[in-house]
Structures
1.
Amino acid sequence: MRKKVTVVGAGNVGANTAQKIAAKELADVVLVDIVEGVPQGKGLDMLESAPVEGYDVSITGANGYEATADSDIVVITAGFPRKPGMSRDDLLLANYEVVKTATESAARYSPNAVLVLVTNPLDAMCWTAHQVSGFPRHRVIGMAGVLDTARFRTFIAEELKVSFENVTAMVLGGHGDTMVPLVRFTNVSGIPLAELTDQTTIDRLVQRTRDGGAEIVKYLKTGSAYYAPAASTVEMVESILKDKKKVLPCAALLDGEYGVHGLFVGVPVKLGSKGIEHIYQIALTASEEAALQKSVEAVAELVEVLKQKIG
Ligand code: APR
């Protein structure tokens, strides 16, 4: 039987995610959005490229959740972009409502699904989805680290003029300005980055990675990145559906790992058919530890705002 993936939010990230899942024939796809006609229209448009591209999956669009029943994975990309004049907390509270509603409905129809969160602010939205769904922690996962490492890998490969594929990188922490690119675990075909370039260059690449999302927003002006976010989401979806057990940096609910309790933070995990099958704890140096702690505090602040709202 074919696998089934629901993508909530048929905007830029959601539609690209759906298209890539179909193109790789990973699963049948159901696109859900609140705007009438948009998921149906985009779904049909994607389906009509099947004869040309040569994939055999069904792609449907809906405004409700009935058609999503028994999905193996639900990807949540629904949300508002940050508008001028909107504070970070305003965005947090607006997207809290969206992710809460989407999770409640999706979880009711697919109680055994793995939830993959994409909506920002990512770590706080993962916390919301976990609270609302009541799913075990291995079935609520946030997409951030794959994207952040993809950006870091891109900048390194361009700088060193080597294949993108050869670069392996590691980024820990929250998905934001405080993310922690771990240079010690970043290499080109096993050669540590520090052996290939100087510290000033490394610092510049790290900073560009931290600002990676903002760099795209600055170009697009009215929206945020979506090709690389969609590609990163699909790598996670593929590892879960095919039980590939890829080790990827993802936002996971920590229960004592890295000294963190009850917060979603980006850490290396093994992704298989059960969702998160292992959280890798790596020994950090004092400065890495301090950077991670700072990032955890930033995530905790946002979750605190949500806790106060819920009461
Ligand atoms: N239920 C379903 N869909 C919703 C809901 C809801 N309650 N609220 C909003 N949406 C839909 C919108 O109608 C829109 O089609 O979510 C979609 C969001 O799409 P875009 O505005 O194009 O945003 P996108 O670029 O896809 O980003 C989505 O992913 O990377 C993150 O920061 C990004 O949080 C943002 C999310």
2.
Amino acid sequence: MARRWTNTLTHADVTPEAAFWNRRQIIAGMAGLGLASLAGGAEAQVSEEVLEPNSWEDVTSYCNFYEFGTGKGDPAAYAGRMTTSPWSVKIDGLVDRPGEYDFQQILGEMTVEERIYRFRCVEAWSMVVPWNGFELADLLNLAGVQEGAKYVAFETLYRPEEMPGTAYRVLDWPYREGLRLDEAMHPLTLMATGIFGKPLPNQNGAPLRLVVPWKYGFKSIKSVVRITLTDQEPPTSWNTANAGEYGFYSNVNPEVDHPRWSQATERRIGGGLFARREPTLMFNGYEAEVASLYDGMDLAKYY
Ligand code: MTE
């Protein structure tokens, strides 16, 4: 059965607003980890609306998937032509059991659950998405991570005949991303296979895509066909395209601005034209879970 986010806060937890968001986010994460009971036995009194998911319409029509064009509506309009069955993921590099892993077989091995995560895009908008998926760590363990592995590299499908956006060299195709191994093994790091209890629509990265909730959305690579364990920091598409604007880490950090705009606030999609901007939280609100991964690192340098 899917583990659902449950509310354990009281009104005493809700001020100031930023602290409220922070605890909600943390507890949302903890619920995903099955640790909700550790958050305290307080009665549920706060309305659910704060972490209420965006609508299906918001999540599936306002997308970034440059293989289908750079407009927000392009993925919904054109990703339907991507063939997603059969689908396999090549897992190679520093693993005990390299090979082509059939997607249906992977699904059979994994525990799929629901996690409601806030999703913060580098363009300073955000959404709340109910993902269905399994922990990336479970998939990596299936392949058997070898001693010397330090990073995980990911690649998206590259099939120009089905992907009109790849005719333009806005990025170097295939789309590539990477994580440090400890980030990849973190229990918040999800391979999503669905949203709202349904299989992932193509525009959201069918049949499986990464979700790393404390990093900007572009780290969440879609339609993954290859995962490589390596001892070198892998090149990533956005860093290769513009290293000054997009670093390898890309942690959500209100104190480190994008060179062309502030990252201190965000606009929630679906909030309407006059919705107030909300303060962005360190590590997107997952600070308690992930800050220790970066102990001693200068996050302005490693952005
Ligand atoms: N993955 C691929 N393959 N191609 C892309 O263009 N865009 C990224 C990320 N993953 C992208 C991608 C960016 S910039 C964001 S914000 C998220 O996907 C958007 O995910 P969503 O459309 O499901 O909201």
